[in-house]
Protein: DUF4870 domain-containing protein
Amino acid sequence: MNDVIGSPQVPSRDERTWAMLCHLSSLLGFIFPVIGQVVAPLVIWLIKKEDMPFVDDQGKESINFQISILIYAFISFLLVFLGVGILLLMFVGFVQFVMTIVASISANDGKQYRYPYIFRLIK
Structure:
């Protein structure tokens, strides 16, 4: 079935697991802000991107999302001084947590997940 030219390749169990870990590892950012949030998925992506195309795709998506979250959190932090930033920071944290879980489940199912409203800096 996958021999047809142009048909999508079904990721192996290992690829799906590593792609899921790319997404889930970013939750370390709640324990080690910034470093855990970006470095953990970056390391997994850099190690596995050559051998596993699905991990390459999902790793880039995860890193782009985490960079975008950092930008949104920084803007929210600046808005703390105007009184609305605290609510925005809580919202950004909630969105990061929920979207990361959704992306992890999707990656584990072998589906290419795309985060909405992110900057795609790594292509």
